[in-house]
Amino acid sequence: MSLSTLIKSIQDIMRKDHGVDGDAQRISQLVWMLFLKIIDDKELEYEVMKDNYRSDIPENLRWRNWARDSEGITGDDLLTFINNDLFPGLKELEISDINSLWYIVKEVFNDSYNYMKSGTLIREILNKLESEIDFTKSKDRHLFNDIYEQILKDLQSAWNAWEFYTPRAVTEFIVQMVNPKLWEKVMDPACGTGWFLTCTIEHLRKEVKTVEDEKIIEDTIFWTELKQLPHLLATTNMILHGVEIPKNLKHDNSLSYRVTEFSPHEKIDCFVMNPPFGGTVQDGVLQNFPKKFQTKETAYLFLVYVFYRLKTDGRVGIVLPDGWIMSGEKTSEIDIKKKWLEEFNLHTIVRLPNGVFSPYTSIKTNLLFFTKWTPTKEVWYYEHPLPVWYKTYNKSKPICIEEFDTEKAWWNNRVESENAWKVSIDDIVKNNYNLDIKNPNRIDDNEVLNKDELIEKISTNLEKSKEILELIKNG
C-alpha cells in the first residue's frame, strides 16, 4: 500500500468515529500513535544493542503489549485502557533524569489527547500501522519524511501550515550558507516540526568521525516550539533522524524570557529559522523586550530575540516575507532596523519569487543572512530566478536545491549582474531604512523606457554578463 493511500485509509477510519472533529484532531490522533510506535521500535533496537537494557515505561503501557497483537485488546476494553491507563500513566511517569528518552515521552503526553470514542476503530488503525510500517528498518524511517509532507497537506484546512512549513530546498540552502560547525551551538527558537534542525544534523554529520562527535551534535542543537502538534512532530522527527534523546527540544515559548538577561553560556553561534508571522503574543511577553522594540508582531520579536542571544561572530539565516519589516515604517520597525544595521552585518538578501511556499501562501519571501561582528556597510541582493520554463513555483513544481547553485557560485565571488546588485548603507538610511529594494538591473515588463535608456540598460547588462562569463572561464 502506498503511503498516501495508507494515511488516507487511516483518516477514513477516523471519520467514522464521532469523537474526532476535523482535520486537526485526526492528525493529532495519528501522530501520537506513530510516536509511540516509533518509541517502541527504538526500544527493540536498544534491547539488541545494549546489555541489560531496561525500559522506564511500565510493561502494560509499552506499545508491544497493547497495540501490536492484531487479535489483541479491542472495543470498549481498548478504549478504557487508553483513556484510564495509557494516557494518565504516561503523563504521570516518575522519571528523575530529564535527559532520558522516557522523560521526553512524558513531556510529549502532557499535552496529548485521545479524541476517538470507538475502540474497534482504534484497533483497525493500530493493525494498519503495524502491518504497513516498521521503523526498525531504515527505508521505513525515511518514510516519515513523506508522512510529514502528507500531514502538512492535510493541515491546510486545519491551521496555517506555513507557520511551521519551510520547503526542504530553502532549509538546506540556508543551513549550507550559514555553515554551522561541530561544537557550535545552533538554534531554531520557533522550530515547528524541526526541519531546519534535521538539515543541520545532516550537515554536521559530514564532520562526524567518532561516537563522541555524534554526541556533540545532540548536545549543541537547541530548538523550541510552543504548539503541541508541531512539537510532537519535531520530537518524532529528531528521533527518526538519529537523535537518541532530543533533550534540547523544549515545548515552550522562546519569547517568554527577558532578552537582556541571557548569560554568555546561553548565547548561540548560529540561528537558522523561519519565525511565525502575524501571530499574537501571550500576556506579559512584551515586558521581556526593551520598550522601543515592543510590538505585537511575533516575527519582529523573534528577530530582536536573535539580536540579544547571538554570540559575537555569530551567524544567522532567517526567512522574512515581503512587506513587514522589509519596508515597514512604524517607529518600532525603524528602531529594529537601526539596531540591525548598526550592530550587525546584514550582508545578503536573497529574494525569492512567487510560489515558493505554495500552496500555503503566495506571498513573496526573502532569505536574509547576517553576522554579529561589524556594522552593515552594504547589502548585497540576489534575485532568485525562476527556471525558464516556469511562470511560478507551485505544488507540482516546487523549488529544488539544485536551483540555488547560481547563488552558491556567486556567494564568495560577488559581482553585479541581472540578478545581483548591492546597496550602500547610506542609501538605505536615506530611504528611511527600507530594505524592500527593487532590482535595478532587470527590465520590468511594465517599465517604459525611451530608446537611449533601453540601449544603455541592455549595454550595461551585456557588460556584466561578459564579466560573469570571464569569471566562470577562469575558474
Protein traits:
Ferritin, 9-stranded mixed beta sheet, Rossmann fold, 3 domains, 44% helix, 9 strands, 16 helices, 475 residues, alpha/beta
Short description, anyone?
By secondary structure, the protein is of the alpha/beta class.
The amount of helix comes to 40-55%
- How many DSSP helices? 16
CATH homologous superfamily label of the largest domain: Vaccinia Virus protein VP39
Largest sheet, strands/sense/barrel:
9 strands, mixed
Report the structural category: alpha/beta
| Poorly predicted ranges | 157-162
Distance between the termini: 49 Å
Task: Provide the domain count.
Answer: 3
Query: What is the CATH architecture assignment of the largest domain?
Result: 3-Layer(aba) Sandwich
- Strand percentage lies at 5-15%
Shape: globular
